[in-house]
Structure formats: structure tokens, C-alpha cells
């Protein structure tokens, strides 16, 4: 008897709520696909790696952690002879101060001296409640972009003042605090115009590049960052189980957009029931539940530009993808599925791609370069006749902003270090036949190998779906 929608939901939620099964969950043999599990049973196929870190029990990094990050930056500034850093990159500001905010055309800066915790904000007025309720109290505020001289409607001062040069405004704030004649690091471009303005407002001041110092600190994840990442990936694995069950239950009666919508709703509800929040600033920050699903021809392109709203059909390649983050940490978790049946070429492409994911992860140990790992992956692709289906590097560094350095790419010779995290997506695309496959995961570099932090199998048992 066909199960009702209510029966399916009850069964699926019950299975997922039971958590993830450990090493006892067996994968299908690679030679021939096993019969897929019935709808509602996908959670039982999730399989944790014994080397997965413990997931965080907290929702975000705390003030003490961010102050420690500031001290690590200050040590680097002192080594480089830099007296203080003016940071305008959103992700650097969040990393070092913990203040989550939205980046727009409005300039937003934090000045971090090379010693002490007397930091200074330079921020737009619309963020005043965020800034005023955070731990750094010294600040300079402009009303909005473009700011008019003396115009502060929020203070009852309504006038069409001369347009304020906000770069000069920031530099005047630094001068007022005694930073003229110092070496100041910046994380943005040092242009001729900027140098001219500095020479005029802050005589005898030198500018130094500090973006690389920030990047270096952010690339190596601390234990707390890794714990938050694992928590997000555990949620994401359960979200994938829901998506698989939904597809198996509804079959060709739904579109890829239907799957995406239902899965996103499930994921948000799953995560937010565990997030402590009161609706005010500084709680429920850095939450991302971005689910993408595409079926058929849409899978044949690495970065398609069309909206995905296609009915699922037998014989389609289907990808469940996206990113999930908690407190700004998490990553990608994609699975490249195939709606039965598949032909020999699809099976071959899927097998080569899946093996490349394993090659990348296993090789991503501390002490090798990103270029070395990339060469292993590309060599396997080319050896197996996939050259014309290769469109991109195997992986990017994973950070709060998504892509961050370093890269698993032939031209990136950065040495991998324990604590770095990467995507895991050596995709293969066959637009001439209307399909492509691109798994991804979040790979944690350790001393001996890369650990895929998701618990979703890359097996035919999981990925070949019989509707």
C-alpha cells in the first residue's frame, strides 16, 4: 500500500532524530548498485568518520576567543614593525572583533593597535545599535553614504552639507588619536590616491600591507572553529538524508525547486530549534542554510546561470548541494545523484569523479602543497579519459566567506597545514549529453590525511535513486 505524505514525514523525522549510525552502516559494493533504501530510511545510511572532531555545543565564538585572535594578529604586527592595522574587510572585522554586520557600499572599519585592546570603530549610523552593544566602545560615526558635513537627522541636524570624503574622515580620526607618523597596516589596496590622502592628513605615516597577515591567521582553524564546522556538517548530513527521502517518496511528481524548498525548510527548522536567541543583536549570527537542487541538463554546467525549476525525470542526473554554517563556520556538502537508469558513460563519469574526491581527501595531509594534491586528481581524470569534461580546479579553501585561500590548484604551491579546511569538488561535466556530477564535502587537513567532515556516503547505494 502506498504510504501517505503524513506517514512519510513521521517516518523521516523519526529516522533523522535517531542520529547517525556509526561504522555498522555498510556501503554498497562499487561494482553494481544495491537496491536503494526505502523512503524515510536515509538517516540510517549516514556514516561518521571515526576521526570527526567533536561538534560544538555553543552557537558562536565568544568575546574571549576574538580577543585572543586580536592578540595573535598583534604578535604578527609587532614582528613586521607595524604599529596598528586598519581593517575594512568584513570577514577580517568579524574574525577579530566578533561583530557580525552586513557589508554594503558604506565604509566600515576597525582600527587595531599593535598592543592592548583599545580598538576604534569607524562605522555608519545604521549600525549604531550593533556597535553600541558590543564590547569595543571607542568609535567614530558618520550618518550614511554619502555623508553630508554636519548632517545627522537622527540627532535633529538636517542639512545639505558638503559631501564628506570618508577616507579623509577615517584618517582624521586616527590623527586625533595620535597615530600620525606611525606604520599602519591596511587590508585593502594601497592606491596612489590613498597614499596622497595619507600624506596630506597623516604626515610621515607609512602604509603597509596587512591583508596577508589576516588571511594567514584565518586559514588555520582553531579547535573552536573546527568544532563549529563539525556541528554544521552534522546538521547538513541530516538535511541530505531528508532530501534523499523526499525524492524517493515523491519521485517524478516534484521539481528540483520543490526538493530545494522543502529541504531548506527542514534544514532551517532543524538548526534553529537548537540556537539560543532572543531576537536581539549578537545571537543567531552567521547562520546559513543555503540549499540548491538541480536536475537534468542543469547539472551539466559548473556555474549555471539559469533558474532551476525542472520536473525530475527518470534518467536524470540530480545534484543536492549548498552550504550550511553555524556562527559563520561550516561548509559545502554536495552529492551527485543519478535517477535510474544510467548508461555506461554516466556510470563511468560518476565513478571517476567519486574516486577523485577520495584521492583529494586522502592526499590532503599537512606537508604537501595544494598543487601536488591537484595534480593527483587531474592525473586520474586524464588517465581515465575525462580531460574534456574537466572545467575547474579540485577545491578551494573554505572559510566564513566561502572561498578563501589557499586552493587545491595546479598553480597554488602553498604548503597545507593541519587545521586548514577545503571543499572537495573535482567535478566532471558533459554538456553534450546533458549531465554532470559534482560531489563536495568539507575536508579538514590533519597530519596524516584529509578528513571529510560530512557523513553522507559517496556510494552508489546512496546516489543511484530508483523512482
Features:
33% helix, 18 strands, 2 domains, five-stranded mixed beta sheet, Creatine Amidinohydrolase, Chain A, domain 1, 18% strand, 12 helices, Creatine Amidinohydrolase, single chain, 467 residues, disordered N terminus, alpha+beta
What does it look like?
- Helix 1 packs antiparallel against helix 8 (223-250), helix 8 (223-250) packs across helix 9 (256-272) and helix 10 packs antiparallel against helix 11.
- The protein folds into two domains: 5-51 and 231-465, Creatinase/methionine aminopeptidase superfamily (Creatine Amidinohydrolase), CATH 3.90.230.10; 81-209, Creatinase/prolidase N-terminal domain (Creatine Amidinohydrolase, Chain A, domain 1), CATH 3.40.350.
- The protein starts with a helix and ends with a strand.
- It has a six-stranded mixed sheet, with helices on both faces.
- 33% of the residues lie in helices and 18% in strands.
- The relative contact order is 0.13.
- By secondary structure, it is of the alpha+beta class.
- The longest helix is centred in the middle third of the chain and has 28 residues, at 223-250.
- The protein has twelve helices and 18 strands.
Amino acid at each position: 500500500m502506498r504510504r501517505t505524505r503524513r506517514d512519510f514525514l513521521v517516518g523521516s523525522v523519526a529516522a533523522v532524530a535517531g542520529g547517525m549510525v556509526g561504522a555498522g552502516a555498510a556501503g554498497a559494493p562499487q561494482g553494481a548498485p544495491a537496491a536503494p533504501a526505502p523512503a524515510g530510511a536515509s538517516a540510517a545510511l549516514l556514516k561518521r568518520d571515526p576521526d570527526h572532531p567533536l561538534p560544538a555545543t555553543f552557537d558562536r565564538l565568544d568575546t574571549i576567543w576574538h580577543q585572543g585572535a586580536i592578540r595573535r594578529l598583534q604578535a604578527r604586527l609587532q614582528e613586521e614593525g607595524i604599529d596598528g592595522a586598519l581593517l575594512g574587510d568584513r570577514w577580517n572585522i568579524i574574525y577579530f572583533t566578533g561583530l557580525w554586520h552586513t557589508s554594503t557600499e558604506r565604509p566600515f572599519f576597525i582600527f587595531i593597535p599593535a598592543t592592548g585592546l583599545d580598538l576604534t570603530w569607524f562605522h555608519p549610523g545604521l549600525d549604531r545599535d550593533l556597535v553600541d552593544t558590543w564590547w569595543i566602545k571607542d568609535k567614530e560615526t558618520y550618518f550614511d553614504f554619502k555623508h553630508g558635513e554636519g548632517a545627522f537627522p537622527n540627532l535633529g541636524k538636517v542639512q545639505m552639507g558638503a559631501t564628506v570624503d570618508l577616507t579623509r574622515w577615517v584618517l582624521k580620526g586616527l590623527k586625533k588619536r595620535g597615530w600620525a607618523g606611525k606604520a599602519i597596516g591596511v587590508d585593502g589596496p594601497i592606491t596612489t590616491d590613498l597614499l596622497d590622502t595619507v600624506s596630506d592628513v597623516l604626515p610621515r605615516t607609512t602604509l603597509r600591507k596587512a591583508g596577508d597577515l589576516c588571511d594567514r591567521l584565518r586559514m588555520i582553524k582553531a579547535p573552536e572553529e573546527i568544532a563549529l564546522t563539525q556541528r554544521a556538517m552534522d546538521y547538513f548530513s541530516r538535511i541530505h538524508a531528508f532530501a534523499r527521502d523526499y525524492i524517493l517518496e515523491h519521485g517524478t511528481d516534484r521539481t528540483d525547486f520543490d526538493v530545494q524548498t522543502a529541504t531548506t525548510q527542514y534544514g532551517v527548522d532543524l538548526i534553529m530549534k537548537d540556537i539560543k536567541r532572543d531576537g536581539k543583536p549578537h545571537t543567531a549570527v552567521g547562520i546559513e542554510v543555503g540549499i540548491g537542487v538541480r536536475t537534468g541538463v542543469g547539472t551539466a554546467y559548473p556555474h549555471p546561470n539559469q533558474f532551476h525549476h525542472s520536473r525530475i525525470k527518470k534518467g536524470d542526473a540530480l545534484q543536492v548541494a549548498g552550504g550550511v554554517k553555524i556562527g559563520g563556520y561550516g561548509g559545502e556538502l554536495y552529492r551527485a545523484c543519478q535517477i535510474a537508469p544510467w548508461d555506461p558513460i554516466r556510470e563511468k563519469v560518476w565513478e571517476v569523479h567519486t574516486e577523485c574526491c577520495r584521492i583529494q581527501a586522502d592526499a590532503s595531509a599537512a606537508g604537501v602543497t595544494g598543487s601536488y594534491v591537484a595534480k593527483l586528481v587531474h592525473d586520474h581524470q586524464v588517465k581515465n579519459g575525462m580531460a574534456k569534461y574537466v572545467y575547474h580546479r579540485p577545491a578551494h579553501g573554505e572559510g566564513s566567506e566561502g572561498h578563501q585561500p589557499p586552493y587545491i590548484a595546479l598553480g597554488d604551491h602553498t604548503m597545507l597545514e593541519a587545521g586548514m579546511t577545503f571543499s572537495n569538488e573535482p567535478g566532471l561535466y558533459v554538456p553534450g549529453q546533458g549531465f554532470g556530477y559534482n560531489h563536495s564535502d568539507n575536508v579538514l587537513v590533519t597530519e596524516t590525511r584529509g578528513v571529510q567532515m560530512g557523513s553522507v556516503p559517496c556510494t552508489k547505494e546512496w546516489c543511484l535513486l530508483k523512482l
